[in-house]
Specification:
By secondary structure, the protein is mainly alpha-helical. About 65% of the residues lie in helices and about 5% in strands. The chain has a two-stranded antiparallel ribbon with strand order 1-2. Helix 2 crosses helix 3. The protein starts with 8 loop residues before the first helix and ends in a 5-residue tail after the last helix.
Length: about 150
């Protein structure tokens, strides 16, 4: 029997966010046109999509990943046609491709349908507020120091 946990809204939020993200990934329908990505590649693409033209070192910093892991993910994403790199050495910049944009568009459509079906009885204003809070949380993580 699990030990009862004292109520903690922050721990509860973290637990729920992690579990809901897992459930969304599990229930996202397999789209034939979607390029499959590893967990690390998804993490890297999220940063590249949000900050086109960023440097690999910035991706590693924002993702909390080792530079070698980011390099491996970048090579894999480039081979899949999801991004391009320009520049040399320390001036390398990473950009999403049209395929990456299309991939994300298809996924977002699937996510929108999935959540709209599950949350059709929730006030849209509450969903908007939830999105605002989670976006603020994401920005604070991105702007803060890496690691625990």
């Amino acid at each position: 029997m699990p030990l009862p946990q004292p109520p903690d809204p922050y721990a509860d939020l973290a637990d729920l966010v992690l579990n809901v993200a897992r459930l969304i990934r599990l229930r996202t329908p397999a789209e034939p046109d979607v390029v499959p990505l590893t967990a690390t590649e998804r993490q890297v693409m999220r940063i590249v999509d949000l900050t086109p033209g960023c440097a690999p070192s910035r991706i590693a910093e924002r993702a909390g990943l080792q530079r070698t892991n980011v390099s491996t993910a970048l090579r894999g994403l480039e081979a899949k046609g999801m991004l391009t790199r320009s520049g040399h050495g320390r001036t390398v910049k990473v950009h999403p491709t049209e395929l990456a944009r299309t991939n994300l568009e298809v996924l977002r459509g699937a996510w929108a349908k999935l959540l709209a079906d599950l949350l059709d009885d929730i006030d849209p204003a509450a969903i908007t507020r939830c999105n605002e809070i989670l976006a603020q949380l994401e920005r604070r993580f991105a702007d803060g120091p890496a690691g625990p």
